[in-house]
Write the structure tokens for this entry.
Amino acid sequence: MTKDQSFNRLTVVLAVLAAVAIVVTGLLGAAPARAATATKPVTVSLTFDDGDADQMLAAQALQQNGLTGTFYIITGYLNAPGYMQQSDLATLAAAGNEIGGHSVTHPDMSALSQAEAQRQACQSRATLSSWGYTVRSFAYPFAESTTKTRDAVRACGYASARGLGDVRTPYDCAGCVTAETLPPRNVMLTRAPSQVEANWTLADLQQQVTQAKTDKGGWVQLTFHHISDDTSLDPTTSPALFAQFAQWLAAYSADPANATTVKTVGDAVGTPVQPVVQSPVPGPAAPGVNAVQNPSFQTTSTTSPSGQKCWQYGGYGSNTAAFSTVTPGRTGTTTKATSLTVSDHVDGDAKWLPTFDLGDCAPTVVAGHTYSLREYYKSNTVTQFTVYLRDSTTGSWHYWTSSPWYASASTWTQAVWTTDQIPAGFDGISFGLNLFSNGTLTTDDVAAYDTVGAPPLATTTTTTNSATTKAKAKASSSVSRIAPAVDALTVRSRAVLGQLDTSGMPGQLDTPSTPAGSATAASSALPGTIAR
């Protein structure tokens, strides 16, 4: 190689190195500029829990602004006062909204057996699917879940299930993320802000969207309950505020610079629809076996609002009811019984009832069979059995009938009544002695037996007005009114804690007929049809 050749080669090498240096410098210099302009897309899902009737106001605002949402429905509450009608679901779906599952009776699913949790999730989805809706998404009642409930929901074919209280809001979770990821970190417990409550402002709602955009982007699920100006319904959002937010969100998401889209939960997750899964109820008790769980009130429960495993409060109308347990019970100094005192009575009633559920607590019955209902009581006024049935197709609960009256009793007396045949289409029963006037009632040792194989009675039963009440009671032996398990005051949840708020009075389970034997019983206890 000549000297000139060596020089020329060195020149070429130096030139190449210089060019590489320029490129590397350019790349290093360009990185901050690209980072500053990188898009951080945000997906927003507007969700509505419970199926409250006033949520149709939100549906109107969504449609007016070209938006859609996900409505999580408590299927056992449909058609009940204050809740959507089945026709409302058709209206929602026709406008492009998603219909999701929120259980049948809105229990704290973390407190249930896995089998009962699965029945709650599967029956809700099966009912909605049978009506023609594509059901992919679930929301846990009270935002409560455990590994077993998540497994139960997954087994029902849901693509996702939403919690609450894991995303930063102006009011809580300051150290939390600003949005869920897509795909979610845990598809069976997706993260979302705590529920929107009455104190939230337009700026608060906007911030949930914009803080995600300025942080890392992601998925923001906003959860609404009542859409009403009645703040006693809290959690609620005023219709005017929701309309303002919907208008803002529509305009905000329409600007490409904001990289924000509004999708239903199912579309955001994007998982294909899975087959519907059935989860049948347990079989009936064997002949001669008491079908009532915890019949003597000896087993307490920290997760039941009543404090008693498999028992709930019931009542309706204008009266003041006080529920408690007392010692001693009927059979010993350390045993317990239930006590009920009604005061300020204007109308309605109150009673203890086996929990309205899908099999763990409420006795399973067989259509066409009759049942012997038994309960010991002491009372300073008359009482009667009030009876409810569970729809075998939907799992929802309905008022059925009432028994004759039973006379006041100062010592333990057993009230016994044999039902008519269970109508076709029903597979569960709940019943209890009630108070429909001022007074005090103590009850213990409750039983339900199929009349075939039922054990003999232990005591004499005392009834009053029996000459007129038996015929009238039979006249009401068809299901006529729907009954949600408890009203909003009883089941109101604190989203972050996911706990029951048990400070409210137990709520409206029913509007049954006037007690048999009263002046108006004949007109109010006529057979009817189930609202669908």
